Amino acid sequence: MFEQIAHSRLAVGLLAVLAAGTFAAFFLGRRRALSIVSGKTRELHSRPSYHGYLVALTFLLPGLVVLAANAMIGDVLADRLALSRLPAEIAGLDPTEKAERINAALELARRPLSDPSRLEGEAIDASVQAYATLAAEIRGQVKLAAVGLASILSAIGLAVALTRIRREQRARNQVEGAIRGLLMLCSGVAIATTLGIVLSLIFETLRFFGEVSPAEFLFGLKWSAQTNIRPDQVGSSGAFGAVPLFYGSLLITFIAMIVAAPVGLFSAIYLSEYAGPRLRGSVKPILEVLAGVPTVVYGFFALLTVAPAVRAFGDWLNELILAVAPWIEGPVIDAQPTSALAAGLVMGVMIIPFVSSLSDDVINAAPQSLRDGAFALGATKSETVRHVILPAALPGVVAALLLAVSRAVGETMIVVMAAGQRAQITADPFQDVTTITVQIVDLLTGDTEFDSPKTLSAFALGFGLFLITLVFNLIAQRVVKAYREKYE
Amino acid sequence: MSDGNLSYPGAEKSRRLRRRYREEVRFRSYGVAAILFAITSLCVLLISIATEAVSAFTRHDLSLELFIDPGVVDPSGERDPETIRANVSAFSDLIRGELRERFPEAAEDRDLRRQLARMVSTLSAEELAARVAQSPELVGTTIRITAPLADRIDLYLKGLVTGQSVLDGVGSVDVSRTSEAVDLRSQGGFAEAYRSLADRLAEEADGRKQLARVSEAAIARVDERFEALQSDRTELTSMDAGSLAEMVRQSIAIEGQDLSALSLAAGRAEASGDVQPFRTLLGSEFTKRADEATREADELLERGDAFQKKALEAEARGEPNAETRRIQARTAYLAGDRRMVDASRLEEIARSVPNLDIGALSAVASLVTSRPLTSLGRVVASGNEEALLPAVIEINQAEIVAAEAAVADQVARISGVEARVEALKSVSPGRAEALADEGLSAARSKLRRLERDLAVLQATRDRLAPPVPSVGPSVDTPASTPAAVAIASGSPDATTEPAESLRDPEEFLKAEAEAQLGLDLGGSIAAAYALGRFEGGAPGAEADLRALMTARLDRELEEVRTDKARLERKRARDLKAATDLLSVASNPSAGIVLDEFSPTVLIEIAGGVVKAKQVSENQVIGQELIPLGAAGAVAAGSWSIREILVPEADRLVTDHQIVWADQLMKGGDIVRRPNTSLLTHADSTYPELAGLAAGLAGSFWIMLVTLILSLPVGVMAAIYLEEFAPRNWVTDFIEVNINNLAAVPSIVFGLLGAAVFINFFDLPRSSPLVGGLVLSLITLPTIIIATRAALGAVPPSIREGALAVGASLPQTVFHHVLPLAAPGVLTGAIIGLARALGETAPLLLIGMVAFVADPPESMLDSATALPVLVYKWSSGAERAWQPMTSAAIIILLIFMFAMNALAVYLRRRLERRW
């Protein structure tokens, strides 16, 4: 019987009951509050609806908490219990065999009763079958216990809340307290997310450093995580020197910033200092469109249009150099189908709107009195901008550029599609390089086994990436904040 | 300051002013240029993708009247839908049969039949079968079917495969037929086609000439190198001994490493009799190696311990990877134990080194160099017949010593392994067993190999001459070395061939000498040894050294010579090809022969099509692709010439397929229609059948999860922070957090999803639920920031009014402030969702790259998403994927722009200015 329960949707059913019951509880509570004062709502401290809300909450919450806990740890708990009741014929086996059978049984117990693959195939051992039944039964028992506990607690909650309804009960304050708690909980999600990111990255990174030394990772010049490492291969492993990846990321970011910084900055200056409101109103949305295009589209653009153009340009340049200097041997520029330059250029275009809108903000934040003062001295507009506004806004502009850099370093799809896979340190932008993000995607797509250093290295890279962007972001935020406060 | 200005003379002042204005204009133009650059980039992006996408929005279908032959599709006559559906090959036969009827010329030839069949998409028969199975009454009737064409034919018809040009045919044509070719004659009628082909040939000839010039330059460089080597070679013979030694020393230093140091010391010791430096060097070498082995062994054993521990833990938790861990532990232990044996063996040798004499030392050193320590000089100087035999014998002798040492070492190693096994038995039976199993057997088989090598060498010795016990002064009698002692215990099996007498001793010696040369000519070990002997003052060492270097240079010279010959051949070939091409191109009467690497010339004439094989101004000899009518004269104007520019070898569509497709197109049997399958089909490995349905559904589910999770949580968080939270460090911290999260790269969120949702909570990979969870975390900061801005924009008077009439703070917020801020919240949410719709990287990390054939049916099914499909299609190999990807992007962009437009509309419509 318990086996059936294990596979039933009992908990889901109870959830539906709880949902429906919550409505009922609300009306029950309200009616009871009304009946206490026989309809004269003025005599109540809180309005009847608040009593209803309170009753509904005390009904819903305990059951919900228990069910949520069951959903998260119920099965794990059941498997632990099942492990402690291991039948003798399995417990007596040698460790390998034992683990195998336990796994098989638990896997079997997880499959629904109606699943035909339960019966056919792989000639399941009788002891495994028996243990699977036992495990399923224990799961059923745990589930039943949880559902029972949830029902009982909710029922108690309902009863207590109903009996506690009094004329002078501060139901509104209590409900509002609960709401406040919920709101706080929600704003805590941001912290939880950061915490989740940091903890999971640190945890996996430490595991990675258990297998590969941090010195090799940080200072090694050779990266070849893709050389597949067999689990039984000992004494040799892939190379995990991350320097070429960091270099690749920086090279592409550098190229992107060469494009984005002047273009973004000059368009921001033009829009905020020169352009009239109509031009501003039509150009800004276009820049916003540039920011809204998904990065995978930029990636395809790089692949389809920019990379071939860059390659053709590189070949042309090469011929030009060889024609001018015939004594040079071999190709000077060996342009590749995917290149750092192609990815960097497209990424630069993608970042233009970030630079321009952030710098636009800081330039606008510079007080008008500065401009007026400069104009009064007879300065032209460009002189005002160059000698007064930009120096005043410099911290903000630097912060904007930092944010843009952090964006570029973390950008993924463009480089995945257009930068290449070769981990190398080269100053030639026509060569293909690989970046941190490319390698993360490469390592974590396909078979992900959370054991091999290959997979774990992705987390170490991710941690490095997170730290880099975090530092840039924090500095930028601090600078912007200080800058704002200075002129407010 | 004004005083200073006034002091400028007038001309200077106006010049200054002009400069300042120029600067102003320049500065302004920078801004305009920047904005133009941004706008141009956007336009180029959109236009390049849109033009690429256009072709994917339509497609060509074959539209045929087809008789559904009951005898073919349903021979049993039961009209059972399942049987019909399963009988796909019958339907594909029907379609092929119909095509073959149209083009009877294809029926004869197997290859043509295949080409014809490949014009329709592979799966079109499946669609037809499904359609007939749905309404079995169609069997036995004639219906009109539309079958998608194969992607390459589709691309051809869209003009994306090759350019074409129509050339004028002048005058009338006389058609005559021979048994295998068609002969078309027309006075000057093919002149334009001929000229076009001739131009192309001339171009190609130019290319060949260019190549020849490149080869010429390379030859010049090779010549230079050859001369440099040659002069080195001449110098060598006249060089005095000191500079010769210096030259050798430098060449060793280039390849230099500890091995050559060792052989240098060995050579010196052998020549001068002062063994001590060699002994010290060898001793420290072995000590170093032993230390290394010990360290590695320790590391491996530690690793084994770690894996063992992990295995036990995994087992205790019932995790499935316990077995893997155990294998890892076992392998690590095995390698560690082996290395341990190595270490003790190496230590043993290191300890014995101080007591060895020179012969034994050389033998031991050969364990390190894995080559016998001899100077090869005398072998090299093989022009001297008398020197040849002793040299070969000497080397043979040295090799035998080295091989004996290796055998002895291996025997000692085996006993070391056995000792280790014994020692382990009490500690860890498992490890002992593994070592006994694998370590011992590997070591034994290696021993057998070494013994065989030795036996071969000994056989050679017997063949060389009446055995001479000690020819070289360097070789001691083997019996005194520890190597020989060991050999006595493990004597080799007599697998050697019987020592036959030398039938042709000179031949044999030459072969043997060649073999020796091949092994280590001029390698650093031999050179170092020879140098050592020279430095030690051994007689004849200088000659050896000189011969060695000479041979080395000779070999390099030989290589350079081969290089040059190769380049010259290539140059001659290119030049000849260029002349040939030009002579063909400049001789109009001879005609140009066309092959699959030249453009295709088709002559359409009297309902048939001829593919030209040979073109001259007045005559075309060709092959009928579509049969012509009767032979005879064809009037001017009723025939035309078409040139297909891309050669047949460079495209996937054959000439036949082109002609057929054109014919079908002309007959109205191919229709171009909107490519609805782009929206209705799921992903496929065939571009002509792939569609976005699964991606759209997947994206919809993901967006739904994202909306349900991030909107309420985000709004509530924003309300708390904006309206309720006290100003303290906790709130500040949360705020910094949110701002930072907004700037964290999305791929990091993907890592979080992979580590937490998939690995820790064990949620199904690539499910919309996980995708939605990750994307809602990404969207959350955007929504919070937008909501806070919207709440902040609500004037305080509203709040104060509500509070003044006695509303509580929550009532104020929920009844008054939030409704007023709703438009802003909504706009922020929509923009956040639009951004999430385009996110790709985090979805890749949670496994959404897998091929998903069907739209997901629940939150937990495997799914794919629109941007992921874009990514996947973009890496498709076929040319047809490119327009498909672009079309997918256009659809994605349409959705995103629609969402953004909605947001803008809402903002304009509902926004209130206070």
Tell me what you see in this structure.
The complex is a heterodimer of chains A (488) and B (914). Chain A contains 17 helices and no strands. Chain A is mainly alpha-helical and 488 residues long. Chain A has two domains: 2-169, no CATH class; 243-487, MetI-like fold (Orthogonal Bundle). The longest helix of chain A is centred in the middle third of the chain and has 41 residues, at 171-211. Chain B has 914 residues and is of the alpha+beta class. Chain B contains 32 helices and twelve strands. In chain B, strand 7 and strand 8 form a beta hairpin. The longest helix of chain B has 48 residues, at 191-238. Chain B is extended, with a radius of gyration of 43 Å. The model of chain B is unreliable at 467-503 and 518-522 (pLDDT under 50). Classes of the chains: A mainly alpha (488), B alpha+beta (914). At the A-B interface, helix 3, helix 5, helix 7, helix 9 and helix 10 of A face helix 2, helix 12, helix 13, helix 24 and helix 25 of B.
